[in-house]
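Input/output pair, single chain:
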Amino acid sequence: MSTSSRLRSPLALLIAFGAALVLAAGAAAATAAAVASSAPLPRVDTTGFPAGGSNPGIFTDTCARSETAPDDPIMMPGMTGMSMQHDFFGNPAVNASSTAAMLRAGSTTCSTSADASAYWTPVVYQNGTALVPERTLLYWRTPAGIASSTRTMPEGISLIAGNETATAPQSTSIVDWTCTTTASDPRPGKASLPHDCPSGSQLRLVITFPNCWDGHTMDGRDRSGAVYATSTGCPASHPVHIPQIVLHVTYPTASGAGITLSTGPQSQGEPVTGHADFMSGWQQSRMDADVAACDTAQVRCGPVKGADATPQGGKAPGGEVGRGKA
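Output:
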């Protein structure tokens, strides 16, 4: 039988077709987040906003606490009441069985109704009493070095930062305890453990999320889908640059004494297990537009508000605040 006859046989055609499908699927997975949507993005006007310069391109989102509950829809899905106690921010309907699809288009405590995501952190206690944070401030940032290759994170992704099983203080590049700013201390330092803050300031927990994605893992449960960029960028195993979420939770105390973190439904432990979870409920077109206009374009867009997640303008070095419209 000739070579051309063998290639035309049903078995050979089936094998060739199957191989082509495997190759196509692999290529699609590797480039899923690197391909921009063909749909036009909503217009975001950042005229007059300051450039990132030596700072990252950034926009911010603020979410009030929505509830406290012993649930964790990423790590313990469907296991109602069996997780450590968490403070939830954003979507008030989140529970142990929530999925990203359930969150989208829901209500929210965030400054933009385009963000119906759920964010959660372990409850912080002081001398056994839960400290109730009023809100969390979220940075969505991209350093200049990787801005040109940054792609928005995909609809439905979940991510985890920090280690809830840590037995020693974590790196302050991921989890740090600091204080809110004051006129006398505009740049408070980082620390791996809670500490006293100056008069007029409050204790703050800052959690930084990974910003390199593998292009296909959507579930953050085992943390395999996202890692942190290094000074040389993202590794080949996680080639997709995504905006980095930095979560700031402020607590109503200036003292670092007697601080513990939730470790179970009724248990507490040493303050070394700081972590944060994110399950995206963003309206994807609004997130895409803000990432493109602020992070990728390296513009300091400041807070986003309203149904369209409209940037309000960031502070320039001289203190001016830009204004824009969506």
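The CA atoms of residues 216 and 306 lie 31 Å apart. Residues 1-38, 318-326 have pLDDT under 50 and may be disordered.
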